[in-house]
Amino acid sequence: MDSSDTLRLEDCRRELHKLLGEERLAGASLLIFANKQDLDGAYTSAQIEEALQLGDLKGRAVKVQGCSAVDGSGLADGIGWVVDEVASRLFLLADGS
């Protein structure tokens, strides 16, 4: 998402919660790339998490990863989180838990 477009955060929150309410996405992990962290006035990851009310989401792993498409910062961290998240689920399935 564009972390500098603070005017659309309410629309993002509403649509995200609507989408995540779908049964087929129950328990799905969620990674949000907060792009444009290189711009002055961009919301931080914590501000985006609060504005999107991600603390209200139960039963799923959630991460807001600040990033910049201009210099690539934060992208590897976000992808690493997804890989770790998927690997932990696979381990649980293989373990029979």
Descriptive notes:
- This protein has 97 residues and is α+β, with helices and mostly antiparallel strands.
- The chain has a single domain (6-95), classed as P-loop containing nucleotide triphosphate hydrolases (Rossmann fold, 3-Layer(aba) Sandwich).
- It is built from three helices and two strands.
- It has helices at 9-20, 45-51, 75-95; strands at 30-34, 62-66.
- A two-stranded parallel ribbon has the order 1-2.
- Strand 1, helix 2 (45-51) and strand 2 (62-66) form a beta-alpha-beta unit.
- It is flat.
- The chain starts with 8 loop residues before the first helix and ends with a helix.
- The model has no long low-confidence stretch (mean pLDDT 91).
Describe the structure in brief.
This protein is 41% helix and 10% strand. The chain is α+β, with helices and mostly antiparallel strands and 97 residues long.
Number of strands: 2
What is the string of SSEs from the N terminus onward?
HEHEH
CATH architecture: 3-Layer(aba) Sandwich
Main pleated-sheet profile: 2 strands, parallel
Strand order of the largest sheet: 1-2
CATH top level is: Alpha Beta
Low-confidence stretches: none
Separation of the first and last Cα atoms = 34 Å
**The CATH topology is what?**
Rossmann fold
Radius of gyration: 15 Å
Mean pLDDT: 91
Helix/strand class? alpha+beta
Provide the β-strand percentage band: 5-15%
**Overall geometry:** flat
